[in-house]
Amino acid sequence: MNSFKKINDLAGWVIFAIAAFVFLKTIEPTGSFWDCGEFIAAAYKLQVGHPPGASLFLMMARIATLFAFGNTELVPVTVNAMSALASAFAVLFLFWSVSLLMRKFIKAEADNKYSVSQLIVILGSSAVAALAYTFSDSFWFSAVEGEVYATSQFFTAIVFWAMLKWDNVADEQHADRWIILIAYLMGLSIGVHLLNLLCIPALALIYYYRKYTPSRIGVFTALAVGTMILAVVQYGIIAGFIKIGAKFDLLFVNSFGMPLWTGFLFFILLLVSGIIYGLHYSRKRNKPVLNTAILCFAFILIGYSSYTMTVVRSMANPPMDENDPEHAFNLLGYINREQYGDRPLAYGQYYNARVIEQEKGAMSYTVADSKYVPTGNKIIPVYEPDKCTVFPRMYSNQPNHISAYKEWAGIQGDATPIMSQNMKFFFSYQIGYMFWRYFMWNFAGRQNDQQGHGGILKGNWLSGVKAIDAMRLGPQDKLPESMKWNKGYNRFYFLPLILGLVGMFFHFKQDKHDASIVMLLFIMTGLAIVIYLNQTPYQPRERDYAYAGATYAFAMWIGMSVAAVAQWLLKKTKAKAAAAVSLAVCLLAGPLLMAREGWDDHDRSHRYTPRDFASNYLNSVAPMGTIFTNGDNDTFPLWYAQDVEGIRTDVRIINLSLLNTDWYIDQMKRKAYDSPPVPFTWKHEQYVQGTRDYIPFADRRIEGFTDLREVMKFILTDNPAAKVTLGGEQMNYFPTKKFYLPVDKEAVIKNKVVQPENYPNIVDTIFFEISKNYLMKSELMILDLIAHNDWTRPIYFAVTVGNDSYLNLEEYFALEGLAYRFVPVKSDKGRSGQDGKVNSTVMYDNMMNKFKWGNMADERVYLDQNNLNMTMNFRNNFSRLADALLEEGKKDSAFKVLERCLEVMPDKTVPFNVFMLRITDGFYTIAGADEFLVSESNLPERNTNRKKALEYANVIVKRLSDIQEDDIEYYLSLKGTPFFKQVDRDLNQAMAILNELARQARANGQTALADSVSARFKALESRL
After folding, report:
1. C-beta of residue 503 within 8 angstroms of C-beta of residue 559
2. Is the four-CA dihedral 153, 155, 160, 162 of positive or negative sign?
3. Residues of the chain with pLDDT under 70
4. Taking the model in full, what pTM does it have?
């Protein structure tokens, strides 16, 4: 056995080395999109990220950043490498866990030694399981970026392994130290992510099988106890500890006049005293189970204490201080994720239920003059009883969610759903689409990396077995290159799935108790999450990373298929040969196939797009400017760029989602790096949470336009005559939707708000009209800034913000890059027909000289959907800039702009799409121009540019026509099947593009090319 331990340990570390190499080789060299930029920025300076925080993760990542040795460009590499190594350790503990499980039913032979064939089977099964998990899609995705999920999975792996180790030595003295270690690890994991807690029911089952004689009622009791412990930890310890402490603090601060946190510390002192007494009592009365339970409770709290860092750092008021959890009640809201609202789980409303009344929930508090000041009760809506149900799955009243609910559940009209439809949505969407689809990505194959919402073209699982795929996605014989080109097009032919099922049945046959534990782990980290999340349709991103625990459990069974196949081969050959052949077959059909297919869409090395795109946003802003952003991907990378690499620290990023909160407005009114405070005029008590969270419109029939500054004063008054009654509550309101803002032309010119050539176009007054019936706090703050800024601080809106947040100010926008500048010059829609005038002088300098392109032209770089979506904005901006230059007669400059577009985003890495139509039109315009401005170029260069422009345009027309024809052939192959109607929109767009290409070519004298494209169009049209 000692020799086996050495071999087992060595083999495990070899697998660890392989996994570490894979993950370190494929990590992203900068902060990835979504939350990664925020996590890296928060870790680098120990700031406070979004709720519920990740205090331990941030401290671990901060230590990792020290290995950058002051090179800020290496900071994200060190954090991403930490995720890679944490993932490799998860793989290591998976190896050892499978080894422990296998040895329960593969017993050593004579002299307590394993034979060579047994060693191959045990270690081979462990290796195949570990490597299958290494190359599984969802786990690999998290392993190469600075997010919490890799570290969270490490805690899941080590906790599960530790429980199996306890199971091995449960009868030995001091074996319960393993249970206490598990409690401590779980406490620590709270500071990373709560997913680890889902192991608790499986751990309870391990304990039950080891300590008791199994029975059906006993198993159910163990599961019930495990679930109860899970609930106690999540709701009693994590939330309850802070809630009780906050109440103590309220008493001590407001009633006894003591400093903040005094009552909380007193509560901790009481708790510690109780723990000490309990330990003493249990030892004195010889109650070992009670003693162990108290120790577990204590060690969970010790691990949980990592959140002390969150409070301490919030008190330091760093630039990123989300929710400002520097007093007990803010910390409670932070831990409970109150910022994100709530969702019904056991009982609640359907999407069409009306609110019939409102109940008062817990009181909210803020701090003023070192006292807790109530800011109002949380409002709990009460819905129509006949439109509520147990286990509500379709609850959101957002219009796009409602339409999707009806489509997934088969609901006609406006009828209230019935339970069968509620469950149909649960099984078809929440389980089928938001779990099973992800599971199949990992072990059957994947169609592409584009986010899907239920159609046949994007984001589905796909095996590569055409007959089976055709039943779900339509005929696969004429798949276009645009689909095959996608690096996410991974075909596993069901082989890893089959191996896992073989291993699962084999495990149940050999040891049903342990198999049921693995199955419970699979259910808790898969289906239980589905139920708890209660996800709505149209998620902003794919959520497969949340289910990495389920793929972890299934990978164990993939490994055990080695033993299953070896056992079958024993009937036909010798033991050594059977073991070796089985190992080879399972390696080839599992991990190696998964590695070959998945490498190109998981290799993020050489990709710098998130950082460079963030830099482009910031460099679109004039010095000391402000930029309004909205989503994660136009905010978090910008935070990273500023906080870590020090890019444009003079720019103030204002996230509109967060601007609805008082704590964020407070932070905007503080200096940050080189950025002065944002000049909001509202006082804290005027926007404190619960005050003016939104303002309704009440029509007072005011004629004409009203001064915006006067309306803002009216909104801020506390005079009862300036309020309306809504829902039994007195509220401020705005009495008109038509506003004007006088323009100080001298201030505009002095502060260089517009270019000198636009001085004659500066308006005396800005007139605008909003269309909304209520204004959120964030929109009120936009209006406040605009009303009182007096053109001293440049104001920008990111192009990704969306029209809804522009407040109908688009007529006064100037496009200067990836942001619109608010200017007192009214714009007309130019050639592009889009909102906002292009400031060609500034935008040309930004896009041609300042912008970076993230290495997009390198064929080694993997550009996923997030990146390709960004390229649409860039191509659109290139074409808009070129159009503006052409309107100004600057044709040489327009040519350089369009040529740069092709250079930084070539077809080989960023396939031509509909946005190329305007690029082609620009090239044709240049090629057909009568003359170039002499001031821009000499005659030979003018002729060269004309010739090149024509060549570029024709090449794009030919290539884009090929792409469209290939796509259309695929769409037409679906004709006569139920899938054809699902591609109707895509088919029509492709036909329209083809027709437009023919029109452009003909209009610019390219008759032969136009005839060729037209012939293709007519041939395809005849088959519709």
Report:
1. yes
2. positive
3. 1-2, 110, 829-833, 929-942
4. 0.93
